[in-house]
Amino acid sequence: MKQFRHITAQRSVTLQEVAKAAGVSASAASAVLNGAKSGTRVSAATQRTLIEAAKRLNYRPHGVAQSLATGRSGRLGIYSGQTRLDIRNSFFAEVLTGVFESAEQFRLDTVVHTSGNDEARLVDLVRGHSLDGLIVHPAPDDPILSLLCDLQVPAVLIADARDDFPSITVDDHTGGTLLAEHLISKGHKHVMVKQSCPARRSATDRIAAFTETCHLRGVRVTESIEGSGGETGLDASDIDVLTRSRDRATAVMGWSDFVAETICRDLEAAGVSIPGDVAVVGFDGFEHRFTPKFNVTTIVAPWVAVGLAAVQQLHALILAEAVPIMTTLPVSIRVGNTT
């Protein structure tokens, strides 16, 4: 039985060999097969001859040569900011599904950057034409944003918008309003909101709309902020507000589904009935492969469509086409069994 496998390197057919077989110059072959902008005019008949020769010799265009000829690599980068990209994270899973689907339509490759804090190296890849542009999910203070802005690198932000970059977001304002109206319709007079740390613009917009709607309807809002160490659930003071105070909060809004589901687990562990004692709502509406323990009432955000739109707009930017600074995709509410 063989214990090892050995691969014998195969010599690639060169462009010059194809040109010789077709009886044309190398510059003409490069213009047709590699897309070189040499100004060489090639007749339709010669193009057909070159393509037939390339097929016959099994010629494959060299990626680096094409990049030098066109100024583009045909590759997009995806940067997840200071948060390490984890495909088990439902947000990244859905966004990447859209990115990969759209990239395939445009015949583009995607490179996922996971080193976390090497922003300068990533920008160098774009400047050196190893990548044509970036899709970025940035933290509020991510240093890559100033680098991209200063160098005019083609980039599209997702989820958390900025006024100086084209951004693809979901309608956080409408989502927050819908959640508040739903809880108000259930008779809640005092609610808690759980804010992200650091505060992302998407979370801030959701909670601002939620809070404004509650205040207009005379509903009291208590804000709680996640721990700086990444704690997403309820702390002891939160439990007090929800269970022991005279005017206790009877509902909690988590800024994301992950936070809302963590809150549900914490309430259950504290012996609190959901939604009998406390109602819980979230934001994201991810598709679960398996039935989750808590079917959280949530806002369904089209994260796959965000990925699709990000590639479309980045491709347009790379081609020097104008794109809108802000693209906001619609959301809807899905009522579960936690309210």
Can you describe what's shown?
The structure is a single chain. By secondary structure, the chain is of the alpha/beta class. It contains 12 helices and 12 strands. The protein has a 6-stranded parallel sheet, with helices on one face. A 4-stranded parallel sheet has the order 7-6-8-9, with helices on both faces. The radius of gyration is 26 Å and the shape is elongated. The chain starts with 14 loop residues before the first helix and ends in a 5-residue tail after the last strand. The model has no long low-confidence stretch (mean pLDDT 83).
Q: What are the key terms here?
A:
339 residues, 6-stranded parallel β-sheet, 4-stranded parallel β-sheet, 12 helices
- Derived from helix and strand composition plus strand pairing, the structural class reads alpha/beta
* Total number of strands: 12
Give the low-confidence spans: none
Rounded average pLDDT: 83
What integer value in Å does the Rg equal? 26 Å
- Cα distance, first to last residue? 63 Å
Helix content: 40-55%
Strand order of the largest sheet: 2-1-3-4-5-11
Number of helices: 12
Percent of residues in β-strands: 15-25%
Furnish the topology, listing elements before pairings:
Layout: H1 15-22, H2 26-33, H3 44-57, H4 63-70, E1 75-79, H5 90-105, E2 109-113, H6 119-127, E3 133-136, H7 144-151, E4 155-158, E5 167-170, H8 172-185, E6 190-195, H9 201-216, E7 220-225, H10 236-243, E8 251-254, H11 257-269, E9 279-281, E10 298-300, H12 303-318, E11 326-329, E12 332-334
Parallel strand pairs: 1-2, 1-3, 3-4, 4-5, 5-11, 6-7, 6-8, 8-9
Antiparallel strand pairs: 10-12
